[in-house]
Input
Amino acid sequence: MDVFTTRFGPISVRPEDVIEFPKGLVGIPQLRRFVLLRDAETTGLHWLQSARDPAWALALVPPRTIEPTYQIRASIDQLTCIQATDARDVDVFVALNRTVQNYFANMQAPIAINRRLKLGVQLVLSDARYAVRHVVNFGVALRKSA
Output
């Protein structure tokens, strides 16, 4: 299937690679189907591209690349929608945002993806240790292509 994007142009993905977010993402609950793209030039960087809206793509990184002791304390209810029965099936990412001067990671609202079942959820943690705008020394400029 082809996914049309404003950042990457048209990309071909297998239907089984589409990740369903039953609850959508914070701020964009209407978008529920995404593909996860590895960035070809930046290790650890991924793009969560909407399969429906070409303009929506989020830069994602594993949170432990930013905070090595990062831990999610999620309830069973929060993870029910991705049918997570084994933590080894779940990949966790945080979204990166950029201003003119800094990169920020949203450590308060990680994205959990059950890679086996292709289901995802964005969690909202109550853990005060993690900030919505955690300053990150990312070290490279985010490209506009994967």
Notes: The first helix runs from residue 76 to 79. Helices lie at 76-79.
